[in-house]
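Help wanted!
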Amino acid sequence: MNFPLEYTSGSMIIIGGFFFGYFLEVSGLGSPRKLNAQFTFKDWSVFKVMFVAIVVAAVGLWLFDILGWVRFDALRVQTTFFWAMAIGGALLGAGLAVGGYCPGTSVVGFFSGRLDALFFMIGMVIGTWIFAAGFDSLQELYLAAKGVNGETLSTLMGLPTWLILLFLSGIALIGFKMGSRIEAREDSVIKAADLDK
Amino acid sequence: MKNKTPKEFLSPLAAGIGLGLALMFMFLITGHGLGANGFFIRLSAWLSDTLIPLWTENNNFFYTMTGDGNPMNAWISWEIAGVALGALAGSLMSRRFRFKIERGQSIGRITRLMLAIGGGILTGFGAQLARECTSGLGLSGGATLSVAAFVFLIAFFVAGIVVSFISRRIWQ
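Answered by r_m:
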């Protein structure tokens, strides 16, 4: 096996996207009320789904790397641009708290019938235009505090990947358990039928 | 539509495993993970190029995006088509598909749509600044253990929690 295959188009990418959209919808993450209930600690689905997915994919890719089935250095690892990514991430958090979605979940929300998701997408296009118009004057912030190319947690900390994976799994497990406890105590998980009320 | 009882959501553990496998599958076939923001960059660039071609072609941010013209030429457009189909299939098969404006009871429909646009503007601007979005950077970067992903995710959750203290009324 010689992964990644480096496809750039075609039905396999549609299939990957299909399951991305499918699992977001079936876990309720196309609902802005459910997404926002994470930020008020009432419903931990966002944290749970995201961190389980990260751990599953990270462990899977690590295993494939050990078995020699994937060329890990051919996988895309983003380089840190600290301030742009921290401020950008904060704006996405604020955008979700106010508007109800992030880019991926707005597509899921719209294709499960939500008109508000279409308005969110229109907003994103406007936001992108504003960014493009100000791009030249944002250069300093855009490029500030650049990290090492393709830096991972294991190269940053000088620790083996398996140890980082173990640590990350631990955080996921603690967050999962803590979230479930709060959800049970407050009886605050948003169920599918609650969204019809 | 209203009298159809929706099927309950899948457990976060099962959905997380499914999403993780979809993410890994995408890495194996393309070399990068999942995303969404790239589609909106291309859509914005294409709309801008249609309306004001001269400005768009001279804009440094859109400059690199408008070469292909049609947004369908990028891999992300294929993926988003899949996301749309997956969301349709998931909601229709479980009787959860509803034409509606989802909102908390304390705000009206018009207010909700205005807030959706406002939140969208923050998100569109923020995603271009961060270079990617929650799935492209947080989820996909997280799977390769990139430092960038965790910088993004921490800022995303902290700001979301802080702003929600003010905005939580919207959703009640």
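OP: Thanks! One thing I noticed: Chain B has eight helices and no strands.
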